[in-house]
Backbone:
């Protein structure tokens, strides 16, 4: 039995939708036990609305809630008994094997980094988002934890995303792309040029620089970028389908013939919607911290929460973190010095 | 009569498609004369395939061509008689009023910056791209000229895009948005926080931080960002429709009923395509340099070249550069020092 802590108070529709998601997960995944963390009176009230099969959801009190708009570090310092803080504490004490929260992303990153610490050798955490492409799912790291990564930190994101793509997305030899403004090695900032060198000299399946369009083409299984551009792109991807539907709707309103197509198209659009829906991915692992942490979208539905719990379970069973530690070890003599790091080849290359 | 220099050798399909575009423009815009620059023998051969109305296209020899993949500054130094170099020279000597090229973007930026220099008070040039949104066109600055702008340079991009949106996009009081990873003032890098302050204290219609999704919503008329994230987003936008069409095609292949919709949908898709087509915008002005310079997409069609020439003419007639110089003048006591620049209010605020 794998125990997973779920932040019952995190997300725009908490606790109602989060509890619904917990119930879905408890019913669907027999090997998981969910520790629902938060104001137990409110959580119990929501739980009573559902039929929960024997004993797979337990409650854990946390009296305080960190709001979505609060400043992460200040909120964590002030609210010692927050649901996010208690979740990460349970993970630290190994009372659970993973944490899922749809709450304040910054607070989740800060609590994880400060309380759990990093995996041996990893410099900074990165949020990994899976998105649909024309050729299957891809994973992008980072989408918001680290706005100004160094070349070596970008390189570490590539190592971690490679492990993730193999374990969770079931890619045999993930193609790693470095997000840039052109394909040539000479393109982009100094940091990106240095990251390019580190990647080329590694034993990863590095396919070179990729561009904005490749979020959709599926050219790369792993897209490596800083947290700023990753976050902007993620939000753009999320809005693409919505925009396309609105554009088609508008055109359909213009004449009767195409209005017939509207009706015929409905199943097509809902099929595309399902394929591209963030609900399927459920949540984004915070890679690099010493523990399995999943950050879900604030607007998560019950289905998204259920799937985030599923992914949390997969992180545990596939031992992603142990694999990351192993994968990074040949490169640990790479220091922050660009000259050294670009000269040294990994021993197993 | 407005004279516009057109780089006859620039772009993936030059000179053929560029000459076609010149002919379209010469026939459509009576007030424009096009100076077609490049290897005149080849250009003349292409021109002879078309019927050109009286004397509105003239040829100007430039013996060399800078390739799309060449290193900009090195190529400009080596090839003294390149079509890009000659175009910018003509503009410098005021023999033409504007330049259009679908050639090497970096070479265009370098030649313009080095040879024309900047408008009084402007620190760095920015490439301005117009893109369609659900509520009309918006303009994004910068999409690739300046990968690491300072806060004050971002502020200047806002001033320049405001003038552009008023003059060319006919917006009365353009809404200015700063691209960031969240709406709160506290979000993003230190540079963005400082740029936020400068914008808030200006007399621009600053609507605050915007996010990736707002490229489509049309919340802002002007999107201000660094050239790296702008370039990545631009390439993502360019690929969105293509991807949507492919996704719909794939779904349509799955059963007969929806295949009927495919036929009905064709005019809908081509209508959306037209609306969202880069061809309509034609090219991207390089704002901030002392001259009217338009950079077109390497894959420009004849129609795109024609429209780029149209926009070049509009830059001249609406005196965008003179307006920029006027708009920036109240802020010229803002120095690079963040403390000073954030304290001082413009005299006309």
Residues:
């Amino acid at each position: 039995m794998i125990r997973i802590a779920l932040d019952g108070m995190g997300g725009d529709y908490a606790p109602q939708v989060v509890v619904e998601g917990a119930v879905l997960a408890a019913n669907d995944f027999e090997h998981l036990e969910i520790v629902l963390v938060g104001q137990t009176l409110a959580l119990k009230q929501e739980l009573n609305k559902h039929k929960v099969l024997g004993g797979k959801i337990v409650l854990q009190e946390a009296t305080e809630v960190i709001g979505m708009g609060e400043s992460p570090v200040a909120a964590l310092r002030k609210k010692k008994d927050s649901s996010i803080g208690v979740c990460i504490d349970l993970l630290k004490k190994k009372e659970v094997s993973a944490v899922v929260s749809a709450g304040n992303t910054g607070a989740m990153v800060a609590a994880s980094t400060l309380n759990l610490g990093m995996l041996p050798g990893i410099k900074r955490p990165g949020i990994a988002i899976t998105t649909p492409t024309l050729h299957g799912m891809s994973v992008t790291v980072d989408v918001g934890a680290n706005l100004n990564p160094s070349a070596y930190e970008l390189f570490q994101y590539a190592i971690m995303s490679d492990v993730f793509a193999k374990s969770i997305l079931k890619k045999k030899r993930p193609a790693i792309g470095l997000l840039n403004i052109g394909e040539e090695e000479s393109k982009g900032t100094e940091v990106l040029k240095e990251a390019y060198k580190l990647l080329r000299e590694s034993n990863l399946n590095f396919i070179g620089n990729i561009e904005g369009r490749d979020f959709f083409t599926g050219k790369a299984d792993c897209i490596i970028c800083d947290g700023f551009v990753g976050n902007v792109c993620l939000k753009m991807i999320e809005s693409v389908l919505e925009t396309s539907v609105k554009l088609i709707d508008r055109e359909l309103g213009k004449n009767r013939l195409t209005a017939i197509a509207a009706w015929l198209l409905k199943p097509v659009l809902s099929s595309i919607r399902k394929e591209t829906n963030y609900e399927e991915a459920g949540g984004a692992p915070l890679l690099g911290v010493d523990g399995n942490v999943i950050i879900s979208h604030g607007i998560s539905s019950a289905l998204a929460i259920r799937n985030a719990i599923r992914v949390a379970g997969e992180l545990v069973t596939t031992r992603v973190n142990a694999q990351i530690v192993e994968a990074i070890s040949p490169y640990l003599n790479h220091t922050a010095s660009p000259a050294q790091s670009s000269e040294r080849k990994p021993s197993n290359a």
